[in-house]
Specification:
heterodimer; A: about 230 residues; alpha/beta; six-stranded mixed beta sheet; 9 helices; B: about 120 residues; mainly alpha; two-stranded antiparallel ribbon; 5 helices; about 65% helix; about 5% strand
């Protein structure tokens, strides 16, 4: 299966709101893709559909050729917008928790990253700052040897130095069988590490391209193009 | 070491900067290059983009790869000197153009350079 993610005429309708309007999309393996769009454009809806947290109104979404379910959850590692972890747990607890849950969780990798980012594994989530919590969650998600990583706003709350480390971690974990989809507003921070971008607005895909094609043909950064396309 | 601007394709900037590292002797003739992953990590860029830049440099003959042992700088010193010269020509032409925008012709520019060099002695 060459495409790790595929959408065919994907529609998601919420009462009073057409969240995704007939989306057709393919993401091949071995790519780091930015899912970029203004607030309320459908980014998180798309990511939730890929996780099977919500189901399509019509159309199809396929992960490695399969509809979201038990088999796809084994190969998809998801970082949600909001934390779902119990805040009385320590980082050590959570690592054990993830180990029990996911066959492909690499404990050693997790501890290495925690050390690099200076997070004490004995600390409880409750006592951590917002940024540290985000780091821990991202570490847990990136420590799985998955085939598709879905990162919903992964660097919003962390400081620029840690942001760089996190992006380096993403590059360092890159392997040619896995793809990473990052939804974010911090385009200028991430564009260097992206292969391709998807611009989404009001539930429709407005543009798919590669970062270098945009720079070559428009002579501007993805960040600048985004600001122009989505000018308020 | 890496300095990437946001309004130009990343891969062409990577090519220029690796060329610079080769002609300036950071990676001399015959030297082994770090792995794609390490170079990409170092420059904080996507590994596919780095791979594309290295493939282009290989096509141009500045690099060559050996299946099992990695990627190396060419041992052809002449080739490296040629690249160095063409980089220098680029800089000189750009400078002459900037000077001409300031209203200096070629001869005036050259004598200005000589004067400056004289003063620095």
């Amino acid at each position: 299966m060459e495409n790790i993610l595929e959408c065919q005429n994907l529609v998601k309708f919420f009462p009073g709101c057409l969240a995704l309007n007939s989306v057709n999309l393919t993401v091949p393996r071995g790519k780091i893709v930015g899912l970029l769009g203004p607030n309320g454009s459908g980014k998180s809806t798309l990511i939730k559909l890929a996780n099977g947290l919500i189901t399509p109104t019509s159309g199809k979404i396929l992960i490695n050729g399969m509809e979201p379910g038990i088999e796809t959850k084994k190969i998809v590692s998801y970082l949600p917008e909001r934390t779902y972890l119990n805040d009385w747990m320590t980082v050590n607890n959570m690592i054990e928790f993830f180990c029990d849950f996911y066959e492909n969780f690499n404990k050693q990798k997790a501890y290495e990253m925690l050390k690099k980012l200076g997070v004490d594994p004995a600390q409880r989530l409750k006592t951590m700052s917002k940024g540290t919590k985000e780091k821990v969650q991202l570490i847990l998600v990136m420590s799985r040897e998955a085939e598709l990583y879905l990162l919903d706003e992964p660097i919003g709350g962390v400081d620029p130095a840690a942001r760089d480390y996190i992006l380096d971690t993403i590059i360092g974990n890159y392997n040619e069988n896995a793809s990473i989809i990052i939804s974010t507003h911090l385009i200028s921070d991430v564009e260097k590490i992206l292969d391709g971008i998807i611009f989404i607005n009001k539930g429709s895909i407005v543009l798919t391209s590669t970062v270098d094609d945009i720079r070559e043909h428009e002579n501007k950064s993805v960040d600048t193009l985004f600001r122009e396309v989505f000018k308020c | 070491m890496w300095n990437l601007k946001s309004d130009r394709p990343i891969y062409s900037q990577l090519i220029e900067q690796i060329e610079l590292m080769i002609v300036s002797g950071i990676y001399p003739a015959g030297a082994k290059l770090p792995s794609v992953r390490d170079l990409a990590g170092d420059a904080s860029v996507n590994p596919n983009t780095m791979q594309r830049a290295l493939a282009q440099l290989e096509n141009d003959g500045l690099l060559f790869s050996q299946r099992t042992s990695g990627r190396f700088v060419t041992e052809d010193v002449e080739k490296i000197m040629k690249t160095k010269n063409s980089l220098a020509m680029g800089l000189i032409n750009e400078f002459i153009e900037n000077m001409s925008n300031l209203g200096y012709d070629r001869n005036q520019t050259i004598s200005l350079i000589e004067n400056t060099a004289e003063e620095e002695k």
